């Protein structure tokens, strides 16, 4: 079965870089749109960005200047880096697979598998 | 503040039919598919409905979705206590060039 698992430091200091990895099993990473989504405490879901299996990326404009998402096909992993974090970046970070069965992609895509989430507090 | 509007909370009783809405615009719902996610307390979101009205394998047919114009709705028939969760609508936003989520509706059963 398809599984995604986030991993990374449990705490990040303000102004530093948040780094997370997502290990994918049960499906090839050389397809689909691999996304990061976050949820601040008590808040809704916010899409951060995705990396397509070709390596191309798209980011939420509100975070674009600070975000890098990359793919390592040899490790079946994709990663998130968020620079210059503040307390406002404290959230549960989810990795998810974006699947597109539509003729128009990625517009028709949806998130069919999610990781369990990784809580990353930003605090000194 | 999300570009998709959902009522923040709702309640229902077991056995009842429940519906919740998701309102957007021509740049998102009006021209794209709507998907719904269920987030049980303390868990990751789970895909509930995709492409407006399609159910993934394993999702009971008590759950259904529809879309009309720039709005969409999720309906749960035969409400159960285990349906108590947050429900998020999502779609592609042409202005953002990416997916957007509603703020979610917290359903209490």
Beginning-to-end CA distance, first to last residue of chain B: 26 Å
What is the general shape of chain B? globular
Percent in strands of chain B: 35-45%
Net shape of chain A:
globular
Order of helices and strands of chain B: EEEEEEEEE
Average the pLDDT over all residues of chain B and give the rounded result.
96
N-to-C span of chain A = 39 Å
Largest interface: A-B, 27 and 26 residues
The amount of helix of chain A comes to under 10%
- Helical coverage of chain B, percent range: under 10%
Which parts of chain A are unreliable, with pLDDT below 50 for 5 consecutive residues or more?
none
Oligomer category:
heterodimer
Which strand-content bin applies to the residues of chain A? Answer: over 45%
Residue runs with pLDDT of under 50 for 5 or more positions of chain B? none
Can you give me a brief rundown of this structure?
By secondary structure, chain A is mostly beta strands.
Descriptive overview:
The complex is a heterodimer of chains A (124) and B (109). By secondary structure, chain A is mostly beta strands. Helices cover 0% and strands 48% of the residues of chain A. In chain A, strands 3, 4, 5, 8, 9 and 10 form a six-stranded antiparallel β-sheet that branches. Chain A has a four-stranded antiparallel β-sheet with strand order 1-2-7-6, with no helix packed on it. In chain A, a hairpin with a 4-residue loop joins strand 6 and strand 7 (77-82). Chain A is globular and about 45 Å long. Chain B is an all-beta fold and 109 residues long. Helices cover 0% and strands 44% of the residues of chain B. Chain B is built from no helices and nine strands. In chain B, strand 7 (85-93) and strand 8 (98-101) form a beta hairpin. Chain B is globular. The N and C termini of chain B lie far apart (26 Å). In chain B, 40% of the residues are buried. The model of chain B has no long low-confidence stretch (mean pLDDT 96). Classes of the chains: A mainly beta (124), B mainly beta (109). The A-B interface holds A 35, 44-47, 49-50, 58-61, 94, 98, 101-102, 106-117 and B 2, 32-33, 35, 37, 43-47, 50-51, 56, 88, 90, 92, 94, 96-104.
């Amino acid at each position: 079965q398809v599984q995604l698992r986030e991993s990374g430091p449990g705490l990040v200091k303000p102004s530093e870089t948040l780094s997370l990895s997502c290990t994918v099993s049960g499906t090839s990473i050389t397809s689909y749109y691999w996304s990061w989504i976050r949820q601040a405490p008590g808040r809704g879901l916010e899409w951060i960005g995705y990396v397509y299996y070709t390596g191309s990326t798209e980011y939420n404009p509100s975070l674009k200047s600070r975000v890098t998402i990359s793919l390592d096909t040899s490790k079946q992993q994709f990663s998130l880096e968020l620079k210059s974090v503040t307390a406002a970046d404290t959230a549960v970070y989810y990795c998810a697979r974006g699947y597109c069965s539509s003729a128009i992609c990625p517009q028709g895509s949806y998130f069919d598998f999610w990781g369990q989430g990784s809580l990353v507090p930003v605090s000194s | 503040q999300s570009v998709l509007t959902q009522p923040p909370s709702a309640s229902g009783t077991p056995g009842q039919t429940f519906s919740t809405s998701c309102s957007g615009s021509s740049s998102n719902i009006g021209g794209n598919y709507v998907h719904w996610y269920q987030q049980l307390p303390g868990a990751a979101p789970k895909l509930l409905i995709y492409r407006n009205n399609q159910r993934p394998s394993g999702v009971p047919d008590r759950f259904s979705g529809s879309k009309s114009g720039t709005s969409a709705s999720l309906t749960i028939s035969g409400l159960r206590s285990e349906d108590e969760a947050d429900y998020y609508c999502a779609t592609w936003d042409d202005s953002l060039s990416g997916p957007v989520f509603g703020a979610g509706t917290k359903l209490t059963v």
